[in-house]
Amino acid sequence: MVAGRLLRHALEAAMRMIRDVPCEHKIGMCRCPYERFCFYQEEGSNWKPWLMALLASTATREGAYMMEASLILQLEQRAT
User: How many Å apart are CA 33 and CA 68, to the nearest integer?
Assistant: First the structure.
């Protein structure tokens, strides 16, 4: 039940951001969002996002994989 609520909250936040800000989006997981953002800003990076958002955090790697896959599946099904 907690996982479903967490997914619903993350999906609503993602949908709101995608609707409000015209952008290219990417769902992914990382250990430290700040390090990932800096990695994308390095010279030679093909993709330079200007906005990153932490939609959910989990205590386990498996939980993060499931959250990532669930968000991608939900967004693909909604053709957003």
Answer: 14
Residue 58 burial (C-beta neighbours within 10 Å; 0-12, 13-18, 19+): middle
**Sole residue written with tokens 């969002």:** 33
Question: How crowded is the C-beta side of 48, counted as CA atoms within 13 Å?
Answer: 5
pLDDT, one tens digit per residue, over 29-52 is: 888 889 988 998 999 888 888 888
What's the token pair of residue 74? Answer: 């939900």
DSSP letters, the chain, are -HHHHHHHHHHHHHHHHHHHS---------S-HHHHHHHHHSTT-S---S--------SSHHHHHHHHHHHHHHHHHTT-
pTM of the model: 0.71
